[in-house]
């Protein structure tokens, strides 16, 4: 009896170690946003030049997920998870020590390799370290950590930057990372090296890396240049090239005896539904946090910490609901829990769209934010559990990797797509209303160009600058800029609602209950 209790305690400590790794890896995707204003002054540069501090991590993180998943499946997930954690901790230290932007960009890319390995292998490691009902609870807790880390970036980043400087957002990973390494070595059980006698699919790894790089980079280019057409070669070239390489990757994988990705997983409607939900969760819930943070800081006027505290309205639900979902999923259908939760998120976005206005405050926003948080807190843990049902043990790492790839690409697509919706409505309103202000035509043209060039995020700073605020037309000008921003933000909120509803429909139509999904997977394996 005592031995059983000891084993159980070791399992939960192992979960804590893996959860800590995941939390650090995902937190560093969002925490840098808060530090950018401070880093602009520290490096004496512009926001545009600093953009690659974000993009380097996003890009390398996305393209590394599948490779790290496959290496974990082949050679042991604990080994690769530990290696990833060491890489992440060492790169974090270099980030804080960086004396130039180039050094910081390169070390951020290296850090992303470690972050992707920790993220993608944690789910499969948890599944192999727990059995039965405890597995569902553990995956639920891991899902809550994923949701919490993504939503708490503004609060943690704001506190660290305000009290300890921008370097602290990287240095804080070092002691916690060392602790996680020690706990992982002692308590996490290794998985078999399923592919130790297999050949590494270098062709598949190269094609997957280059195709994902091209697609994600093309989206990043479009995000940075919203006025470039999709047909512009500088955008379309990357996207079309990435899609062509993705098709070549699929054809090559279907012909290789020991492929990097077992494409038979996509013959299951259940698994296809899971990756669609993962994509819509990223494109809707996670990408919206970017715009919500800008609304609260740039337009309402909250500080980084004030914004982070208020966004606890979203993130706290991951703590509350993560462990609960494991219990609920043992009694109720994951399919309908996921579907209804996504629909709930859609309602939340509709409430947010309706709340946006010139005098909007947190009092108006919190009902929609609560529904966003409940959706995130419910869907993420359930997605982890349902996504691994019916998956062969040797392919759990890759299944986890695919879920994370679709979620990450969803975030990128959401930021770009919803951002374009906001830009379009913002510019349309400016073009239709600025002409009504009594000011010289030359001044009007210059201000309009400045607002459109700056975009919705920075338009408020221009309109309410000290110089413009003294102009005779200041109040009318500022009112139009605020209304333009409100129109764009309401439109993107409606877009996010549509994405969440698509995720809910995909879950309702494609997901299967546990028994059915297992039967389908078994039948496909027999074929």
Automatic annotation (TrEMBL):
Its main location: membrane. InterPro entries: EmrB-like, MFS, MFS_dom, MFS_trans_sf. It is a multi-pass membrane protein. It is found in: Cell membrane. The chain crosses the membrane at residues 12-32, 52-68, 80-104, 110-130, 137-156, 168-188, 200-220, 235-256, 268-288, 308-329, 336-353, 365-383, 404-421, 491-511. Keywords: Cell membrane, Membrane, Transmembrane, Transmembrane helix, Transport. PROSITE patterns: MFS (PS50850). GO terms for molecular function: transmembrane transporter activity. It comes from the Bacteria. The keyword Transmembrane applies. Pfam families: MFS_1. GO terms for cellular component: plasma membrane. Residues 14-515 form the Major facilitator superfamily (MFS) profile domain. NCBIfam families: efflux_EmrB. This is MFS transporter permease. It comes from Secundilactobacillus collinoides.
């Amino acid at each position: 009896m005592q031995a059983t209790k000891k084993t159980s305690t070791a399992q939960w400590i192992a979960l804590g170690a893996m959860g800590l790794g995941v939390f650090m890896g995902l937190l560093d995707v969002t925490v840098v946003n808060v530090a950018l204003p401070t880093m602009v002054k520290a490096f004496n540069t512009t926001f545009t030049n600093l953009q690659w501090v974000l993009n380097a991590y996003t890009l390398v993180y996305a393209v590394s997920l599948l490779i790290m998943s496959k290496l974990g499946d082949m050679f042991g997930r604990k080994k690769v998870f530990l290696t990833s954690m060491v890489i992440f901790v060492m790169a974090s230290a270099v980030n804080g020590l960086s004396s130039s932007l180039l050094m910081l960009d390169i070390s951020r890319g290296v850090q992303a390799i470690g972050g992707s390995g920790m993220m993608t292998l944690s789910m499969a490691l948890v599944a192999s370290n727990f059995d039965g009902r405890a597995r569902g609870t553990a995956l639920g807790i891991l899902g809550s950590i994923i949701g919490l880390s993504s939503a708490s970036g503004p609060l943690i980043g704001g506190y660290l930057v305000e009290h300890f400087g921008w370097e602290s957002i990287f240095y804080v990973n070092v002691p916690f990372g060392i602790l996680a390494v020690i706990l992982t070595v002692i308590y996490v059980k290794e998985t078999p090296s399923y592919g130790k006698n297999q050949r590494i699919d270098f062709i598949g790894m190269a094609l997957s890396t280059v195709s994902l790089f091209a697609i994600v980079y093309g989206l990043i280019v479009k995000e940075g240049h919203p006025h470039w057409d999709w047909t512009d070669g500088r955008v379309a070239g990357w996207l079309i090239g990435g899609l062509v390489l993705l098709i070549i990757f699929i054809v090559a994988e279907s012909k290789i005896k020991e492929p990097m990705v077992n494409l038979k997983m996509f013959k299951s409607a259940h698994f296809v539904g899971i990756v669609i939900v993962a994509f819509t969760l990223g494109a809707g819930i996670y990408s919206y946090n970017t715009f919500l943070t800008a609304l609260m800081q740039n337009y309402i006027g909250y500080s980084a910490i004030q914004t982070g505290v208020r966004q606890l309205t979203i993130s706290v639900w991951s703590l509350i609901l993560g462990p609960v979902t494991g219990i609920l999923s043992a009694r109720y259908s994951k399919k309908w829990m996921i579907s209804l939760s996504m629909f709930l998120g859609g309602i939340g976005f509709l409430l947010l769209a309706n709340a946006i206005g010139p005098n909007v405050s947190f009092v108006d926003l919190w009902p929609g934010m609560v529904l966003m948080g409940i959706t995130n807190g419910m869907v993420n843990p359930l997605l982890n559990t349902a996504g691994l049902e019916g998956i062969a043990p040797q392919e759990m790492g890759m299944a986890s990797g695919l879920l994370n790839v679709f979620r990450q690409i969803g975030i990128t697509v959401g930021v770009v797509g919803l951002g374009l919706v906001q830009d379009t409505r913002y510019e349309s309103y400016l073009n239709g209303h600025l002409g009504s202000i009594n000011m010289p035509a030359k001044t009007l043209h210059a201000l309009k160009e400045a607002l459109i060039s700056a975009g919705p995020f920075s338009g408020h700073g221009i309109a309410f600058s000290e110089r413009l605020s003294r102009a005779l037309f200041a109040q009318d000008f500022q009112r139009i800029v605020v209304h333009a921003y409100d129109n764009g933000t309401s439109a993107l909120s409606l877009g996010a609602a549509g994405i969440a509803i698509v995720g809910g429909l995909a879950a309702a139509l494609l997901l299967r209950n546990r028994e059915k999904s297992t039967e389908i997977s078994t039948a496909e394996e027999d074929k």
